[in-house]
Amino acid sequence: MSVAFDKVLDARGLACPMPIIKARQEINTLQPQNVLKVLSTDRGSVKDFQGWAQTAKNVELLAQETETENGKEVYVHYVKRVS
Amino acid sequence: MVTRQATQSHMTETEGLLEERLASLEQRLVALEESQPKDRVSLVVFSGDLDRILAAFVVATGAAALGQEVSMFFTFWGYGSLRTKRVLAGKGFLQKLMAVMSPSGTQALPVSKLNFFGIGAKMLRAMMKQKNVSSLEDLIGMARELGVRLIACEMSRDVMGIQDEELIDGLESGGVASFLADALKSRVTLFV
After folding, report:
1. pLDDT tens for each residue of B144-189
2. How many CB pairs under 8 A join A and B?
3. The pTM is what?
4. Which of B:64-83 have CB within 8 Å of A?
5. Looking at the domain assignment, is residue A36 inside a domain?
6. For residue A2, is it within any domain?
7. How far is CA B165 from the centre of its chain?
């Protein structure tokens, strides 16, 4: 699956709550309708990004996928700034 | 003619009644909206334990990232997370004693379990570092960056004789009413 994105945030190695906080800070710098791709190694980030999209009014979670990199799971989130 | 006039006056009467009802409904709606909780989270930080304070700051920064307005009220042992140094001058005898017995900054905070004179806290910090979890100091900095309001309870500050120069900058000062004013408008209220 490929989702078009405008910027990548590498949050690999960061633990809760940092992936969400960094993503939020990054999305604030984007224009509305732009998409941020977030890479995380935090397993909890899957549910966290869903929670963020449910709570915050200005973001939409387009897709989530899991990749394997050197035997480690990387969780990829595509977040769109709606407004 | 007579019936038409009667109908007309009847109509204006109905319209007037409707307008009245509408105005009163609008008023009630405004009152209802005002009493609704906002996108706000309020925390009371009572504990002076590193692990508990960590949990409080993780929730606070997380909530701020989710777009919530966050207020943290620090009282009693919670002051431990706001302290930067220990000043004894200007304190009464018991206040001095209390100050000497209390941690002088976040680095000296104990953990709530298995502290063993600070060894437990050092172990927890080391383990968090190994797992790349942000330190309490980083989280406090992050909270401020995200606009989390830090409010220091005036009463406990006064009781313990804590002076402004012992605390981090940019604190607001407040009491129970300022906490409740925020808490009553919050969707989530926590006591840590």
Report:
1. 999 999 999 888 888 888 888 899 988 888 888 888 888 989 999 9
2. 40
3. 0.83
4. 64-68
5. yes
6. no
7. 22
